Amino acid sequence: MMQIQKVKKTTHERSDKMKQAYGYARTATIKQADEANSIEAQISRIEKYCKNKKIKLVDIFSDSGLPSQKILNKSALNEMLLKCIENKIEIVIVTDCDRISRNPTDYFLIRDILRKNGVELTIINKPSLNSQAEQNFIDEILISVNALNSRLKNRRKNQ
To answer: Is the pTM of this model over 0.90?
Structure first.
């Protein structure tokens, strides 16, 4: 189970410097490793995004062959969260929100841990909106769609 504790809110004062980021990639199945969503493909998209946005990519963490239901047991994800807090990283970048989790509770727990520590979660394939309320609404829709997709796949697999 995830052992990340709530910590005091921090702010970063690096406006004159290049922002620093960690990337996170995950595949749930061996099959995904051969598809466009492979760890290598996700890392490539994260690196390209950072280069285009002039963000310093400090490190990339990955969990391979780990279904999103096991989110709280993801060693690379937990390590990254702890390092975000310790190293005062400003951004975590993923290709899609379901790389964090398809489970809404887990996704929002992780997103809130990052926010409370002054870390922005950037999802490359998500529309960008102007207000926090709009961003929260889109997050809720996307993560709910991902949760439904996961349930439907499991149902088809069990039939």
So the answer is: no
